[in-house]
Amino acid sequence: MTLRTIDGFEMGVRDADQTGIGAGTFSGANPHTGSYCWLPDYTATSYYIVQSGQLDTTIYFTLWAYVDALPASNEVALFALVNGANFVQVALTTSGTLKLYDGGTEVGESSGTVTVDGHNRIDLTFVANSSGSYALKLKGTTELSGTRDFSGSSYGDAYVGCYNPGGSSTSTDASAVVSFDDAWFSNSAFPPDLSLGCEVLIPTGNGNYTAWTGTYADVDEPSTNDGDTSYVVTGSTNKESFSLGNVAGACDVKAIQLSTVSKQVTAGAGRGFLRISGTDYNGDSIASVSDYYHAWTVWETSPATSSPWTDGEVDGMEAGVECTSAGDLRVTQLVVYAWTVEITAATGAITLPFVVVAGTGVRHPSASGALTLPFVLVTGIGVHMIHPKRPPAGAARVSRMVSSARARPNRPGS
User: Fold this and answer.
1) Strand, coil or helix: 233
2) What is the pLDDT of residues 279-301, one digit of tens each?
3) Mapping DSSP to helix (H, G, I), strand (E, B) and coil, where does residue 312 land?
4) Fewer CB in a 10 Å sphere around the end CB: N or C, the chain?
5) Which DSSP category does 154 fall into?
């Protein structure tokens, strides 16, 4: 799987590309996870661009939408996958159904409706070719699917909120109140679990490297960055790193994304990195631009082990930035997203019937009962049995019964 980007809407307006924010806000009212969600203003154009950074033919996009109020008069846009004039859009109707559009052409309408005053997971996948497959899911149920000759050949950005490009059937509607959280952009798979969510880890202290001017407090904004008000800066080839907060409780970490907002005042180069157990693992390069720019790297497995992440690795790691070519590199915000599934455990016992088999292999006709085994149930994984080391005192050997087994007769003289 190639996960292009995840976005928990915790960083606010990240860079100059966020030109359509309008009167939208980053609200703490109804986040799916974390502290903030994106609340567009449906009285006017107001959208947030979740950027994949690359064009893909195959798209898997997931978003959680909290619907406070349905539109009263017009269909409104929830999100659109865009490349130039081409777009594939999902809209919310006045009755609460979803419509899928390829440009200005309606592909279909869902039979299911969104939950009002609740979070709704929406999944869209499609392949942009002459006979591309597509599927639209609402709350885990496939509402629309089929094949279609899509108008564009590839798509790279997701516009979330009130985005109404030329030819679109959507419009503004003052009655609509919808907030968004936890966007997932991949070219090969949806998030693996309906309860998947995004945790934001911000710097909580200075780390192993402290060569830059400034401290963790200059980059730890949990929402919108403050630009040139506070930042860490260097003019030399060196590193700066920060300790992070921990993931909440026991969880299964599916991906880690390091996001930075930075700019190059004078020509140079840089990159982000993670530090795990004393070793640094480099991320992608930071573009040399003069305006604050959002850059990120996604690790779907631990770079230290090439195996799935553990919450212990995440809790102990640092995140940082490196200036790889001398220049005035400024970083005003650093955030680590952890895409997680919470693990909830329940304990109890399972009672299994049994029969006692005598040492000769002859089934005893009357000895039977039940054996109780303790267990721990882990959500989404299965049942882990805690087997006793030995049978209870005085118990006979416990064996499986095979339906075709026959008692062996006693031989004379035995």
Assistant:
1) strand
2) 999 999 887 778 888 888 999 99
3) helix
4) C
5) -
The rounded distance, in Å, linking the Cα atoms of 145 and 150 is 13
Contact 114, 96 (CB under 8 A): yes
365 Cβ neighbours under 8 A, 6+ residues apart: none
Encoded tokens for 305 = 């082990």
Residues 353-386 have pLDDT tens digits of: 655 555 544 444 455 565 555 544 443 333 222 3
Domain pair 3-191 / 199-342, same fold: yes
Map residue 131 onto helix, strand or coil.
coil
Quote the distance between the C-alpha of residue 53 and its chain's center. 17
Q: Read off the tokens for 40.
A: 């567009």
Q: Tokens for 221?
A: 């904004």
Burial class (CB in 10 A: 0-12, 13-18, 19+), 314: buried
Report which DSSP code applies to 213: B
Please give the Cα distance from 179 to 185 (Å, whole number).
Answer: 18
Q: Among the residues of 263-413, which ranges form H helices?
A: 311-316
Residue 290 identity: S
Question: At a CB cut-off of 8 Å and minimum separation 6, what does 382 contact?
Answer: none
CATH number, span 199-342: 2.60.120.260
d(CA 244, CA 320): 10
| Residue the block writes with tokens 């919470």 | 342
- Please tell me whether residue 313 adopts helix, strand or coil conformation: helix
CA proximity to 274, closest of 306, 299, 255, 250: 299
* Annotated domain spans of the chain: 3-191, 199-342, 344-414
Using a pLDDT cut of 90, give the percent of the chain over it: 56
- CATH 2.60.120.200 assigned to domain 3-191? The reply is yes
Are 50 and 4 contacting, i.e. CB atoms less than 8 angstroms apart? no
